[in-house]
Design goal:
It is a single chain. By secondary structure, this protein is an all-alpha fold. It is built from 10 helices and 2 strands; from the N terminus they run αααβαααααααβ. The relative contact order is 0.21.
């Protein structure tokens, strides 16, 4: 069993979704899942290099633990023989796009309310993904009631609920710490997947989930005082 990173269906980044699904189709699921977990590292590195935001030790330690936990979650999944360098690079590109999206949302949230931010990103995503779907010959409309139910659930739960709450959180938290906190999603997926789908995680995957939880606990002090900024503090959340 593998736990794919983040709620990709709820992510309003067309480039992120494009590269993620390209990676799933051209490399192993395990490689794609693991490499996409690099987004928090890219966020922290980009803000440190280009934004002058130096992470505290707690956040750095949390990132290390989170990557170790993510590796344990996917190490027993699938046949590595299907790995492809272009697929791996697509997964890295997906992580980079998601990191850029998080940084952009953080910048927007300094002056724009959550609802307005979600409206704009949703419109841009719908246009971009719609064009990609048409260009690739995808079916645009569900053909069954179950299909419509799945689409509704993705829109209401994953996008409006999950991505909306993430956007609201980015108005209050440093983006590096927030991106690390989003790595809780594979653990939640495992918790729901066991009783609903009957997918019992292995002991190694349980250990990986525990490491991810420990990463969040380790990085928690970095959310406020340990995250040392050289620039101005963000405005109050709206």
């Amino acid at each position: 069993m593998v736990f794919l990173p983040r709620s990709r269906p709820g992510s309003p980044s067309p480039a992120d979704l494009f590269f993620f699904h390209r990676a799933i189709g051209t490399t192993t699921v395990a490689n794609a899942a693991l490499l996409c977990q690099l987004a928090p590292v890219m966020v922290v590195a980009a803000l440190w290099i280009f934004g002058g935001e130096r992470p505290g030790r707690g956040l750095i330690a949390g990132l290390g633990l989170a990557l170790a936990g993510a590796w344990l979650l996917v190490r027993d999944t699938g046949d590595r023989a299907g790995a492809d360098i272009m697929g791996d690079l697509s997964a890295v590109a997906a992580a980079a796009c998601y990191a850029a999206y998080l940084i952009a949302i953080k910048a927007a949230r300094r002056s724009i309310a959550t609802g307005t931010t979600m409206l704009v990103t949703t419109a841009v995503s719908a246009l971009g993904l719609g064009l990609l779907a048409v260009a690739s010959g995808e079916v645009l409309m569900p053909s069954s009631l179950a299909g419509w139910a799945a689409v509704a659930a993705l829109g209401i739960l994953a996008h409006a609920g999950g991505q909306g709450l993430a956007t609201a959180a980015l108005g209050r938290l440093p983006v590096g710490a927030a991106s690390l906190l989003l790595l809780i999603q594979p653990v939640i997926t495992a918790a729901f997947g066991w009783p609903i789908e009957g997918e019992m995680p292995s002991l190694v995957q349980v250990a990986g989930a525990m490491l991810l939880l420990e990463a969040l606990a380790t990085a928690n002090p970095a959310v406020r005082p340990a995250w040392r900024r050289t620039g101005p503090a963000p405005l109050a959340a709206r």
